[in-house]
Design a protein that fits this description.
Helix content: 40-55%
Oligomer: single chain
Mean pLDDT: 92
Order of helices and strands: EEEEHEHHHHHH
Structural class: alpha+beta
Number of strands: 5
Radius of gyration: 17 Å
Strand content: 15-25%
Number of helices: 7
Low-confidence stretches: none
Distance between the termini: 46 Å
Shape: globular
Number of domains: 2
Amino acid sequence: MSRVEGLHFESTMNSKALRILVEYGGQQAQIEINMERECPSIPMSSSLLAIPYGHPARIVRIMEPGVSFAHKIAAWNERELMRDLYDVYQYESLFKAKLRMDILLMRLKKARSYKDVVAAQNLEDLVDKMRRSAENLTEDSFGELAPLLGTNELAGLSFRMRPAILALCDKMQR
């Protein structure tokens, strides 16, 4: 990757994942490689990312969306980062991903708390925590997302996210 002019990347690694932040042509992406005994996956075309830059599309395998949705909710539970909650919103409202509750429940059993965050250890506490977070969203909640999203995307985001997250909470309680 270091041979491509204008391509910059930074990698970090912990006990669970290798994370690579990539920047090229004014665009940023994050590649995350997680350690699991098994990983349900689906084939996906890279055309949306490759063709605009004059590169051929490839078929790549990505984590099955319902599994990655569960992991994203678990990550938000452990870190309470707005970027994680934003991704949860995207999985729910844009992708209409079917949440893999078995994966989420497994992650909740071994949830770890970081810094000032107390991770929920069961579904009821998670839903309460997520509901409170959605209800407290304001336009001032998204400072962390400002470098990632344009002003046009941030405007009214709390109004769009709140009902999607609350609907997800209702689904998880059923």
